[in-house]
């Protein structure tokens, strides 16, 4: 699958921005904010100096990326071009607060977890990790935006978004809102 570079640029720009209903003064999207902590993760557990690492924010970053990853894998095809595009978008949208090595490792881990637990098992874990409603809505928005990298939100991708909404105890109308917000952002 070839990926349209202009769509990639629009997705990156939209992912970096806070959602339209974010409080005034919000610096960036949940992906950007959580990426700062994830990127500060010490390489070794022995580090005792302050690093800026927040395990909860790092888990949130992983959950946001995983939700988008599950949507991207919904059709059962995630070829090397899609993987590189996905990693590039996450890296760029996160303001390079994480490095390519971290993103590649995370995507590799997510692929293994998906193979082991299946989509429903992973969605259940995301539902347990992302507990604040504002974060849940943002996860849906980020996943919908990343679904557009492959040419729009297909029916199977929308089904994964619905399952995420169910895991969050959010109504299906929020899936429609997330998809519509993504479409508006990419048209503007």
Keywords for this entry:
single chain; 188 residues; mainly alpha; TerB-like; 8 helices
What topology does this entry show?
Blueprint: H1 5-16, H2 30-39, H3 55-72, H4 80-93, H5 100-129, H6 133-147, H7 155-167, H8 173-187
Helix pairs in contact: 1-4, 2-3, 3-5, 3-6, 3-7, 4-5, 5-7, 6-7, 6-8
What CATH architecture label applies? Answer: Orthogonal Bundle
Major sheet details: none
Alpha plus pi helix count: 8
CATH fold annotation: TerB-like
Structural class: mainly alpha
Mean pLDDT across the residues is 85
Order of helices and strands: HHHHHHHH
Q: Output the radius of gyration.
A: 15 Å
Low-confidence stretches: none
Could you say how many structural domains there are in total? 1
**Count of β-strands:** 0
Shape: globular
First-last Cα distance: 25 Å
- The CATH class assignment is Mainly Alpha
Helix content: 55-70%
Strand percentage, roughly? under 5%
How would you explain this protein's 3D organization?
The protein has 188 residues and is mostly helical. It has a single domain (5-187), classed as TerB-like (Orthogonal Bundle). The chain is built from eight helices and no strands. α3 (55-72) runs parallel beside α6, α3 (55-72) runs antiparallel to α7 and α5 (100-129) crosses α7. The longest helix is centred in the middle third of the chain and has 30 residues, at 100-129. The chain is globular and about 40 Å long. The relative contact order is 0.16. The mean pLDDT is 85.
Short description:
With 188 residues, the chain is mainly α. The chain has helices spanning 5-16, 30-39, 55-72, 80-93, 100-129, 133-147, 155-167, 173-187.
């Amino acid at each position: 699958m070839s990926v349209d570079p202009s769509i990639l640029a629009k997705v990156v720009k939209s992912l970096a921005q806070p959602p339209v209903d974010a409080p005034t003064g919000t610096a960036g999207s949940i992906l950007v904010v959580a990426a700062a902590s994830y990127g500060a993760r010490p390489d070794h557990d022995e580090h005792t100096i302050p690093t800026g690492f927040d395990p909860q924010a790092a888990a949130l970053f992983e959950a946001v990326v995983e939700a988008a990853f599950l949507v991207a894998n919904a059709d059962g095809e995630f070829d090397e071009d899609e993987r590189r595009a996905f990693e590039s978008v996450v890296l760029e949208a996160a303001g390079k607060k994480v490095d390519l090595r971290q993103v590649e490792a995370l995507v590799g881990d997510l692929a293994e977890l998906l193979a082991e637990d299946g989509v429903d098992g992973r969605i259940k874990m995301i539902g347990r990790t992302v507990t604040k409603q504002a974060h849940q809505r943002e996860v849906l928005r980020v996943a919908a935006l990343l679904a557009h990298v492959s040419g729009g939100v297909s029916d199977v991708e929308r089904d994964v978004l619905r399952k995420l909404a169910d895991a969050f105890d959010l109504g299906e109308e929020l899936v429609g809102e997330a998809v519509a917000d993504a479409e508006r952002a990419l048209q503007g």
